Amino acid sequence: MTRLLRILAPLAVIGIVVLGTVYLIGRGSGDIPPASVDFSSLSGDDRQEMFDRGEWVAHASDCAACHTDPAGGSDLAGGLPMETPMGTIYGTNITPSKDHGIGGWSADDLYRAVAWGVAPGGKNLYPAMPYPSYHRITRADSDALWVWLMAQRPVDKPNQPNGLIFPFNVRPGVALWNAFFRPDAEPAQVGDSPAEQGEYLVNVLGHCGECHTPRNLAYALSDDHLAGEVIEGAYAPDLRADALARRGWSQDDLVSFLHRGLSPQGVMTFGMFPVLSHSTSHLPDEDLTAITAYLTAGQTLTGPQTADPVGVLSSEGAALYIGLCAGCHGTDGAGQPHSSVRLDVNTTAMFREPLNLIRVIAEGIPGRDLAHGERMQAMPAFDQMLSDQEMADLVNYLRQRWGGHEGDVTPDVVESARAKGDTRHQ
Amino acid sequence: MVEKITFSATINGQNVGPMDVPQDLMMVELLQEYLNLTGTRLSCGQGACNACRIIVDDPVKGTYTVAACVTGVTWLNGKTVRTIEGIAGEDGEGAPLPSAIQQAFLEHFSFQCSYCTPGFVNSATVLVEHLQRAPIAADQVEEVVLAALDPHICRCTGYVRYYQAVKEVILNTPGLTHDNPASKERPA
């Protein structure tokens, strides 16, 4: 027994030292760059210029995506629940409320929180705050955002406590995660070319990879940048240039999709609808063109192209399509302007994951004002009407006829997809 | 050459078919042009206004409504369907007897032009039948009525009289609500 203790005690000490060291590495922030301006001597014009830039940063960074108040009234007062495998996390109040928001934060504090994930008092933010993407924000953009945030209406609304499961509810554990997966804050040097501007918008401010990049077992972003991922019950598709080309995007259609929420390839749905509302619809055309230039990597995309069906289409699937879909979407999948999307070139059937297609058919889509006058009427939910087998037949028909896939979706896959949707609705 | 299917169904308790119809025929056209059941109204043709809602009774999936303007005969082939013509009863002397929902709509002056009324009747009827199997608390009735009828568009009376009529039927019909003294006795 004594001998065992003699062996275990040093190991325990070594373990504690290693753990402590890792914790210390991940807990704090590194150096932060000096402020981009002297805030005490800003002229009115300078402050206005920073305010305007800050508003643009807030839109491009889509702060409201997580920090909006679901009860309405403020895009920044917090309370929006975000479901993660680790439990529910709630967006926080980032209005300049002294008691409940960030009214007491300095511009340094904001940069440290955004780029390093460390709030005043040394509190580690959960990486639901996308500091692994924001880590390359420029100090000038962070400072402009601070000027804009501090000029917003303060909302004295308390933050909602997170509902994370053990051990993820032990906040110091974030420091351990940081030690291995948090990139150092390093302000980007953004060039003038559209592709460089687009890279900054996509990878830093827009933090597109937070949904579109696969995550590893530690829920950190993997190296398969923008390769597509199932997150929050929906598939965020592969955004790499080859995949966009394969799915029949064109540069103009990408710009239209980000601007109005609609293009021949589809309509903003699931997590992208709020992105449209809060972010991309507010960005000027040159930003959307820049995003497109970066994503397409200089390729000239051909745009929508209909392909021959894959394999033999089932008569059951055809009957279901004509009986339930063709009334709005047409027997040939041509759709109707402003009411029913095209299906013949719609990319949802092309995704490797059938999840979104199944969920859209099962749950429908509410009628929505998209952006800049564009709108779509409601799509009904067919959940009650379709058995798992019928749903599989219909999904396979769509994927084979227009998606370039084999008819390999089984009723078990449908059942699992429906369960994901049910979880999201609870 | 338009492909055809052999269609048969039970509509308002009557066997219909077998009959050859174009496979891409929408149900509203079958009802009006082939079966002379003109009570189901075609309006928007996009499934948006719900004037054309009809009832499907499925032994496995339960009772639900579909917009007949965008639901094809291939989906309804072999199924049991009710349209507005099948809602009223009969008084024993051959005269139609309005259902409780229809009577309430008349008494509340719920409609003017009546174009949307068949859809409202069918959705309200399905709601009442659903509540017979799954009663709700009396204070939930307004919310449930709103949810059931919200998709229906009316351009004359402004909905309130439709909603009040359905609410009254539910609250005064025994078994549809619990904790509701008013529903314990049948209305005179």
Number of extended strands of chain A: 11
* Helicity of chain B, as a percent range: 25-40%
Q: Averaging pLDDT over every residue of chain A, what do you get? A: 93
Q: For the terminal residues of chain B, how far apart are their CA atoms?
A: 59 Å
With strands numbered from the N-terminus, the spatial order across the biggest sheet of chain A is 1-2-5
Question: Regions of chain A with pLDDT < 50 over 5+ consecutive residues?
Answer: none
Corresponding CATH architecture of the largest domain in chain B: Orthogonal Bundle
**How many DSSP helices of chain A?**
17
Query: Any idea what the shape of chain B is?
Result: globular
Strand content of chain A: 5-15%
**Main sheet makeup of chain A:** 3 strands, antiparallel
Oligomer: heterodimer
Distance between the termini of chain A: 53 Å
Series of H and E elements of chain B:
EEHEEHEEEHHEHHE
Describe it for me?
The complex is a heterodimer of chains A (426) and B (188). With 426 residues, chain A is mainly alpha-helical. Chain A has helices at residues 2-27, 44-61, 64-67, 107-116, 131-134, 139-150, 173-181, 194-205, 209-212, 241-246, 251-260, 272-278, 285-296, 315-329, 355-363, 388-402, 411-425; strands at 81-84, 87-90, 118-119, 123-124, 163-164, 229-231, 234-236, 262-263, 266-267, 368-369, 375-376. In chain A, the strands form five sheets. Chain A has a three-stranded antiparallel β-sheet with strand order 1-2-5, with no helix packed on it. The N and C termini of chain A lie far apart (53 Å). Chain B is α/β, with parallel strands linked by helices and 188 residues long. Helix content of chain B is 31%, strand content 21%. In chain B, β3 and β4 (62-67) form a beta hairpin. The interface between A and B is medium-sized, with 19 and 23 residues.
